[in-house]
Design brief:
flat; 24 helices; mainly alpha; about 475 residues
Amino acid sequence: MKERKAHYALKMLDAYELNAFRKFLSSPFFNQKESMITYLDILVEAMKKENGIHELVEQNVWNLIFDQPFDEVKFRKLNSDFNTLIEKFLIQKEFEEDPHIANYYKINAFKKRNATKLYDSLINDIDVSRRTDPNRNAQYFLNQYNIEKGIFGLIPEDERKMDFKSGNYGLDIDKISENLDIYFISEKLKYYTEILSWNQLYHTNLNIRGIEIVMKLANNPLFKEIPVIAVFSKIIQIKLEPENEEHYFELKNLVSQCLHLFPKSEGKEIIDAMLNYCINKVNKGISKFESESLEIYKTALDTESILVNGYLETSDYRNIAVMGLRVGELDWVENFIHAFAAKLDEKFRNNAFYFSLARLETYKGDFSKVIEYVSNIVFDDVWYNLNARSLLIAAYYELGETTVLDSLLQSFRVYVTREKSLTKTRKTHYLNLISFTRNLLNIDLNDRSKLEKLREKVVSTQGVVNKTWILEKISALEQKPKYRN
């Protein structure tokens, strides 16, 4: 059976959600067709098998559900209705997980029914939701705007007149207006940070109309101390004025105080902005930002703000390990590699785990272990092909395995030359590594002038993978005695 939208949507659900979806279908309020429950059971059972839903035959599925001849049009309608129910289930799930949305609609429902006796208890429930909500991001202020507006609408006209006479007429409107202002300013700032990132990445010159006005509002004493506005204002500053490191350290201090006020998804965006700044500094040779990067990573791990849907991305996993190695925290890195492997997606875990261990052993100088760990890596994508082979080059050289190294250099050159996904520049960087490593193997220690020329060539060449390692090996050769005739 070919995969339909309904099948794809169903595969998005985890075991807990599948169980909840079945209960959803069993409720007459949401579904009154027994065929939908039967269809779900058939699909779930098929998903447990190797070929999944593809092994099902449409006519056979139809016969299990209906006692009538197969009708392709009705079968398509069955799938369409099933997909609609999945969508309704997901909407209901999101609705129930957000108390602010529920409160907003409760206000509207009570108002339509003039349920004045229930207003006080409703407002008490809303106050509890406010106090227990840890977030103070833009969405929080939009929720408060909607709720305050709804509560204001509950007040009868006569009471508003009395409030007007007593001088209290503006209090609720002030709250409504303030929440709307904070939401508007912070959302504008957030999207402006996105625009600035795109401009940097793609060398464009995009802008947001009226951003100058928003920036003035953000710097107004009424708003500048509000965490969500302060944080995104500071991110904008580090993007617009990257040379002013003071902006970064002010942002770092601010984030240490208020990262907990953001949901994890937004926390990751903030962390990523700080990391991008640090990594750009590291790439410019400002080494102090290596330790800054590791510190940010540690904060992100402690707060779990670096996780995406509970998983640590393999790129982050590898980057954290290499940054820790660069600053010399080998024991911490080893603990990290083992402790957080379980947080990786199972499909990518093996390669990331063994590659990180191989890189760790490279720093430790145990090159036999490097080869052992690399042997566990499946060379199924370009990244591992390039980086794992680069580790092997160093390992074989250090162990004096010249025959194996020579073979590796030949096969690596063929791979780099033929790999179509690599840009010409990137190919050159790896070909330079291969070429200079071969020079190291073939150097005549009796002719020191050739060593000096090799050093000069490596230093002057802009793009060389593992350039520092090659220069270290040249220095080591310079310390060796000449061969005797």
